[in-house]
Amino acid sequence: MRAVVFIGPSIDREAASAELDVEFLPPVKRGDLAELLARPEPPEAIGIVDGRFLQSLCISPKEVLEAMDRGVTMFGSSSMGALRAAECSPFGMVGVGKIYEEYFSGRIDADDEVAVTYDEENLSALSEPMVNLRFAIAAGVEEGAFAPETGERFLEIAKELYFPQRVTRTVLLLLRREIPADEHARIAAFFDGGAPDTKREDAVLLLAAMRDFLDPGGQPRITTVESRGAL
To answer: Which of 43, 123, 164, 213 is deepest in the core (most CB within 10 A)?
Structure first.
């Protein structure tokens, strides 16, 4: 089956290609789905992980619904895909992952929760998505890496920043003024040790779901995604 997946800062192409052998395109924007549907042989499945919203108009729910009306199975996770899946899953779009579940449930609803700035050349993230920070703090509190009040204040500071300025080191620098040095060292060590990357984890789950859809009779594969807490 023909399939396309739009990816960007949530997961790099090399890692995505290791999970699924399909056509990968840069973050989706308004009009991209129409171009795919205009191909002589349009894709039968499309996955949306990342999308544009500052440089160009973002993909609309109407475009997703039009693709599904044409018989395309749509998948969404992680970032723009999670947003559109939360809106369009009642009509048949397949939402995947923790971030999608947070939006679909209404526990989070702001677009800036998944927004990042990224390098146009290599599509690497230059800031940290708020939703990743939420899952990371939940994991740290669950592990006892730092006090719940410390995690709560960390998130308050991060949320107050404009999304391009949401960088972990910036939040930690601002937090240092408010908490004891030993507590600051604990939360800094937690992030230095590698906090969970929920956007990436959800992207891997989307690729696994699409792999199962595209090749239902294929050899089962186990996709391992480390989980370190939940919202």
So the answer is: 43
**Distance between CA atoms of residues 71 and 50, nearest Å:** 22
55: CB partners within 8 A, 6+ apart: 29
- Nearest alpha-carbon partner for 229 in 147, 149, 132, 128: 132
Nearest to 155 by CA among 139, 143, 125: 139
Which tokens is 211 given?
């792999």
Q: Tell me the two tokens of residue 62.
A: 């109407």
Residue 4, classed as helix, strand or coil, is strand
Output b/e per residue, 33-62; b: 16+ Cβ within 10 A: beebbeeeebbebbbbbbbbbeeeebbeee
143-181 pLDDT per residue, tens: 999 999 999 999 999 999 999 999 999 999 999 999 999
Cα separation, 83 vs 170, whole angstroms: 27
Burial per residue of 202-214, b for 16 or more beta-carbon CB atoms within 10 angstroms, e otherwise: bbbbbbbbbbebb
DSSP assigned state of 149? H
For residue 5, the one-letter residue type is V
